[in-house]
Write a structure and sequence with these properties.
By secondary structure, the chain is of the alpha/beta class. The chain folds into two domains: 32-66 and 320-423 and 464-552, Vaccinia Virus protein VP39 (Rossmann fold, 3-Layer(aba) Sandwich), CATH 3.40.50.150; 76-167 and 214-302, OB fold (Dihydrolipoamide Acetyltransferase, E2P), CATH 2.40.50.1070. Helix content is 29%, strand content 22%. A ten-stranded mixed sheet has the order 7-6-1-20-21-19-18-13-14-15, sandwiched between helices. Strands 4-3-2-5-8-9-10 form a seven-stranded mixed sheet. The longest helix has 32 residues, at 3-34. The relative contact order is 0.14. Mean pLDDT is 85; it is low at 186-205 and 417-459.
């Protein structure tokens, strides 16, 4: 499918999610009215504007930010190790569903999204396993077979290749902004006519091409993790085989003349479970000598938004570095924080979003349920000389209320009062900028609160914060309802940027944040209003994309 058509499909996907948000809020509102909550309660103004102006979209979808790199963009590739349709050991991807009885594996040679480095290493391991099996069988010795999903037996299970430092610089995200003509967009497989696009003047690239693939250089670091199931196999046989595999992989790296890279980490992950998904506590060993690896031995470095990030073996990181750079630029710009802002980085992972904007704000507080990710976030902040971040390991629904109760009193009262008085309707044309930016009177507000007699009650200098801004980047299931409730109830949270990889959970979460509640519509806190949205393509040649929505009140 041509990439231009992919962009159309994904842009429409986000537009559809925004239309479903409008319908969801309207439905919830009518259900509340039918229960007789109030006869004076009015439908949010942005709902009618959405239907009249934006073809039902809760907010205008400004376009789609294309991926700067189209081929070989993945910085992390996970390959299954099994038998192909002819019974040969193969390192690649499953060609069908296990529940349908299909366990065959096919090589990644024709997969456009897999990097050249990952393909080189997958091919090298495959050749090694095949030659080992042939030679050992001929000698009559015990061999280490590939994993058999049907029987739950075997030794070689999974190959993970993780790369850092090789992605090309994409520049400012606006360079990659596209606005497809929706009347020319068709669902996948049905884009029969060419369509025009508004393209930024800073680029002349054809949208069916892109920047060179990953462009590995002398700073490129590669981590290899081979997952094995050693239970029932002779330890000496296992150690020798792993050492030979490591030698083969290093040899392949040295011979890759077109792509110079350093095999910084060669690891073995021990996992005897049925599924390939090993737990976070799965042990890691050096592939060459069998010694257990420590935390400082299992990381590589990646460049993002002009900063350096350390990635541990199992840490989450967006698989398309160049497109993630654009995504995080957008999140930071739309959050619009300043030197008196507290930024809540909810579901922060390794701290990428919070760290990229930390120097512009008073403080960043990152929250994530994965303790390993929080350790990475602390290390990444230190690596970049960032000192105004706090990282908390725990469920957001458990820790967020106490964070808000601690920091909300530090927000200047006029800012909190402004939030409670906020209307819940879409901005008028006079209030909106050229790209839907909402102009606030934040900079014009008085620095003092006075009585009617002119007596100063307090000064803004008494408070360290003007606002609390939330940026959320949840997993596919979305945010817990208690997180949504806490964010909505706190009037100091005036702006929220929602980054999503799942339109369904995004729609449900935003509906909870934007629907009037109770007799006056504000019982659960003043509802947010959707201001604008963007699609961001982090996954070319797949059906998936990210969405970013700005909510304000």
């Amino acid at each position: 499918m041509p990439y231009e058509s992919q962009l159309c499909f994904k842009h429409e996907k986000v537009e559809d999610a925004m239309c479903r948000l409008t319908r969801a809020v309207a439905k919830k509102f009518k259900q509340g009215m039918s229960r007789g909550l109030s006869n004076k309660l009015q439908m949010p103004g942005w709902v009618s504007e959405a239907n009249k102006v934006h073809r039902g979209c809760a907010a205008p979808v400004l376009g789609i930010v294309r991926s700067p790199v189209l081929d070989g963009y993945r910085n992390k590739s996970e390959f299954s190790v099994g038998l192909d349709l002819d019974g040969n050991p193969t390192v690649g991807f499953n060609v069908g569903l296990f529940k349908e009885g299909i366990t065959a594996v096919s090589g990644p040679e024709n997969c456009r999204h897999i990097s050249p480095i990952a393909k080189i290493l997958a091919s090298a391991l495959q050749s090694f396993i095949r030659s080992e099996m042939s030679e050992i069988r001929q000698a009559g010795h015990q061999h280490l077979p590939v994993w058999n999903k049907s029987t739950g037996t075997g030794f070689w299970r999974l190959l993970t290749v993780r790369e850092g430092g090789g992605a090309p610089s994409a520049g400012h995200w606006c360079k990659w902004m596209r606005t497809p003509r929706t009347d020319k967009c068709h669902a996948e497989g049905h884009a029969q006519h060419p369509h025009d696009e508004q393209v930024g003047s800073s680029t002349t690239l054809d949208d069916n091409s892109g920047l060179p693939s990953l462009s590995p250089n002398s700073q490129t670091e590669v981590m290899v993790i081979i997952q094995v199931s050693p239970s029932g196999y002779d330890a000496r046989v296992v150690q020798k085989a792993c050492k030979r595999a490591a030698d083969i992989l290093r040899l392949a790296a040295s011979r890759a003349s077109l792509y110079q890279f350093s095999l910084k980490r060669l690891l073995m992950q021990v996992h005897n479970g049925v599924s390939n998904a090993a737990g976070p506590d799965a042990e890691l060993f050096d592939l060459e000598d069998g010694n257990k690896s420590t935390a400082d031995q299992i990381s590589i470095s990646e460049n993002l938004c002009g900063l350096r990030f350390s990635l541990s073996a199992t840490a989450f990181f967006q698989v398309n570095t160049s497109a993630a750079d654009a995504l995080y630029q957008i999140a930071g710009e739309w959050a619009s924080p300043h030197g008196r802002s507290l930024v809540l980085d909810i579901c922060c992972g390794t701290g990428t979003i919070g760290i990229t904007i930390a120097k512009k704000v008073h403080k960043v507080i990152g929250i994530d349920i994965v303790e390993g990710a929080i350790k990475d976030a602390k290390a990444n902040a230190s690596l970049n000389g960032i000192t105004n971040c706090e990282w908390i390991a725990g469920k957001a629904e458990n820790v967020l209320p106490s964070i808000l109760s601690t920091y909300a009193p530090l927000v200047a009262p006029s800012k909190r009062l402004a939030a409670t008085k906020a209307r819940y309707s879409a901005p008028s044309a006079e209030e909106s900028g050229s790209e839907g930016e909402v102009r606030t009177d934040q900079n014009q507000q008085s620095k003092h609160e006075t009585t009617m007699h002119g007596k100063v009650l307090w000064s803004s200098k008494s408070f360290s914060l003007d606002e609390i801004v939330a940026i959320v980047d949840p997993p596919r299931a979305g945010l817990h309802r208690n997180v949504l409730s806490a964010l909505r109830k706190e009037p100091s949270v005036r702006r929220l940027v929602y980054v999503s990889c799942n339109p369904d959970s995004m729609t449900a979460n935003c509906a909870e944040l934007c629907t009037p509640q109770g007799p006056d519509g504000r019982s659960g806190g003043v509802p947010f209003s959707p201001i604008k949205a963007l699609a961001v393509d982090l996954f070319p040649h797949t059906r998936h994309c990210e969405a970013v929505i700005l909510l304000e009140r």
